[in-house]
Amino acid sequence: MAFTFQINNDIKFKYNQDLLNKANQYRPTINYHSVNATSLGNLNKSTNSLGGYNIKKVADISELPKHSFTQDEKVILDFGDHYVGRFSMNIKKLGSPMDAPVFLKFKFAEMPVELAEDSANYRGWLSKSWIQEEYIHLDTLPTRLELPRRYSFRYLEITILGISSKWQVVFENPVVTTESSADLSKVSVPKLADSEITKIYAVGLKTLEGCMQDVFEDGPKRDQRLWLGDLRLQALANYATFKNTDLVKRCLYLFAAMPSSNGWLPADVFTKPTEIPDDTFLFDYSLFFVSILADFEKFSHEKVILNDLYDVAKKQINIALKQVSKQGELKLNDTYPVFVDWSNEFDKTTAGQAIMIYTLKQFIALARLVKDPETRFYKARLASLEEFTKQHLFDEKIGLFVSGNEREINVASQAWMVLAHVFNDQENQKLMQNTVHQLFPIKNIATPYMYHHVTQALFEANLTDEAVKLMKSYWGKMVQLGADTFWEAFNPEKPEYSPYGSSLLTSYCHAWSCTPVYLIEKYLLKNN
Amino acid sequence: MAFTFQINNDIKFKYNQDLLNKANQYRPTINYHSVNATSLGNLNKSTNSLGGYNIKKVADISELPKHSFTQDEKVILDFGDHYVGRFSMNIKKLGSPMDAPVFLKFKFAEMPVELAEDSANYRGWLSKSWIQEEYIHLDTLPTRLELPRRYSFRYLEITILGISSKWQVVFENPVVTTESSADLSKVSVPKLADSEITKIYAVGLKTLEGCMQDVFEDGPKRDQRLWLGDLRLQALANYATFKNTDLVKRCLYLFAAMPSSNGWLPADVFTKPTEIPDDTFLFDYSLFFVSILADFEKFSHEKVILNDLYDVAKKQINIALKQVSKQGELKLNDTYPVFVDWSNEFDKTTAGQAIMIYTLKQFIALARLVKDPETRFYKARLASLEEFTKQHLFDEKIGLFVSGNEREINVASQAWMVLAHVFNDQENQKLMQNTVHQLFPIKNIATPYMYHHVTQALFEANLTDEAVKLMKSYWGKMVQLGADTFWEAFNPEKPEYSPYGSSLLTSYCHAWSCTPVYLIEKYLLKNN
């Protein structure tokens, strides 16, 4: 996430200290590993790489200490894969005594294209402060430089911005101390016959690992925080891989502990310097609290969590249902917008209606588990939602759902209606066949988040070949363009597209893109 | 100092651990004081200020926490006077939760003109790394920012380079924790009738205080190290003011402990990360070790130091005398150059000859004290040096000393010959009268170091009014142009001149400029 802009300074929050304490009981252990840089590289034009650049190896890392650097010289270190962690390196001098400080610039990059862009040219709306560049003066050498901040990167470009002409600097033993609450030893990586799918799985796993920190972060390079809608996908991917249920519990408690005074859950929360709810609210993100709780229950069967959090989930459903008419029609509201996707170029009414149904069904399953006497009421609301959907939102002639007053046909409506299982399996398959024929290739969608839902809808509609084809053409295409981890945004029509106008701000390891590990596990392993 | 460029990588040094240990026994106590910023200012064009800029007060510092800063905003803090120390400040945020780091630039300036220059434009030969700018990312607010490096400054410009548009930053309680081994409580500031001289004394005292650190530094902003020739003037100024004799002892031992294998003392030494002699050697600077020891003995009468260091002083004289012919003529040598002044636009032969005589006379006084049986030998060498000087270097007709094969007449030769007392007092007075008439106003000299020697020569020649006039027209002019401390370089003909082509690199608190405190004490107080 990170493409929604709300300021709601006046919102008051009701902190629940008991739930906050539980969130902190599940604070994860962070695992640290030291990884050495592997080679020295040059930035190289390459038409088959993202933005037209890759890094060409010019020497093994063992050559690094043999070179001494003078004014304006640069070196690019390649760590061989994407890592999240802290950087350290020995720096010494060669030549006359050190008669001045040395002034160094460090530019950390997830993708080579970032090294081709000058941060001075960035004029986007998102804060420049996210750019992973540091300017460091060192007064005495030799030293072990230990940069205190965490970075998300594979490449590091070091530039000598200021040095005396009487001596040179030498770099030795560059190391990233990686950080993650994911434990790779818990993962049994599936053996897959298809090498492309194998690669997609591996990159997805690396993506999720990088985003698993003190909470599930949306991206370790940028935003670095816990979003509710993203958490839903991260938790599912986590059940398929690392199986760190404590981290999911922590995140569920964090959201539950900090609703607004009217009961809305914030779309995202911060955990540093302390737990703080963001003043951003999204209709569907709030509802996904129900999903995450239901998915968690299904995976772990831990009733304590359900008992603690059922009321919060129910509150989200109740708030959302206020926007649903007696006839079963969801009315969208600008002050509590539905997200569905970054793009605001399509009508979201029907997708929102589907998400309401999707989460209400999950809620009813939970209500049954806790034997909520009001379960019948929710079933009745569900029935009217589904009834309205079938009667008013489906165009029989075209065989697709329509959305909004203009009866717009878009891919999001179809995908979410399939996921909500408003129709039976046969109808769903027909619907997705129509979607493929009439709406593919997908236009104007740049998020793996939306591509995930379309791909999953194909799987749910039992169109496995089409699902795999879409996965390969989307996530597989990122791999072809050089992805070590999956990106926050990718539009196959315009691979160089960044939502912020600069690769320097784009997160190239973004949690909501990791879902192939979940889809592969759920649909390609279990079913085969 | 800092305008000489030598690389002598092949030189070997003979460390004397015993003397190094003694140097470290005299390591000074550093005094710390907290000083708050006093006001907020704007950079303002002003024809009567250095480089055409001053800082105009716009608000009391109490206004600072009332303002919140957004993208690209700047603020200039004025600390009311020049300080050397570490900066700290509280930073908090106002508005929505902190959804991004904040990226700040800190530019520390001794003089307002530095704030008018963009460091990106600096292309000089001296390392950019000296520019007092830092770029800092802060991931969590509120925080107490404590910058780890020491700065020399009065002004601090803070720029918001990157911030989210959802919140703003607020700055509170900016403090410099000053550092100096000088103790102001030891100084009895003289009551002077002349307000201009009073001001010059105060600025000189502040300059020396800023340069007294773990050693006598040449400048706390730039170079930050101990130079032998500069130490001579700092020690004299210190005897007149702070009277910290331990710091002089430390510095004497440091030089004595690290001669080259052929006995030369380095022109400067480093003390971080450990004691390191620079690979730079200057004929006159080595000889000034003798001066410093003689001046110290005269001030303190501590015989232990003399006994420990006499041999090192004698070695310097012996090495130097090898360059003196039997007839008493000093032959300059490019591999062991004489400094005299930064300018290389004048012939230094006669000034070098005078420095040889000046230091040899001081050495003979020490030789008598230690009852060196070879004293007679040195007296004979002195006699021939003086004889040669009078016979060959003085132009009777013009009434001035000449220098080099071209018989060049320059101010350095006259000043140093007066300081060396080659002539009697009456002749010296005549010589300096001729100098004033024929060579004033001084041309093409930009160092307070050279101006010091000319001013002192006027005092020694009993031309007190001329000396005071020169002091006011030089140091007084710096005060008029806004000096809180005296500058490393100042050419009254071209006030904006920087030896490095940029005010950003110029040291505006430089030890060799502090000598008015010495001259005032020696010639205006004792004689009156």
TrEMBL record, chains A, B:
GO biological process: carbohydrate metabolic process
Superkingdom field: Bacteria
Domain Glycosyl hydrolase family 78 alpha-rhamnosidase N-terminal: 43-177
Pfam families found in the cross-reference section: Bac_rhamnosid6H, Glyco_hydro_78_N
Residue ranges of every copy of the Alpha-L-rhamnosidase six-hairpin glycosidase domain listed in the record: 194-521
Cross-referenced SUPFAM superfamilies: Six-hairpin glycosidases
PANTHER family for this protein: ALPHA-L-RHAMNOSIDASE C-TERMINAL DOMAIN-CONTAINING PROTEIN, C, PUTATIVE (AFU_ORTHOLOGUE AFUA_3G02880)-RELATED
Protein name per the record: Alpha-L-rhamnosidase
Record organism: Pediococcus ethanolidurans
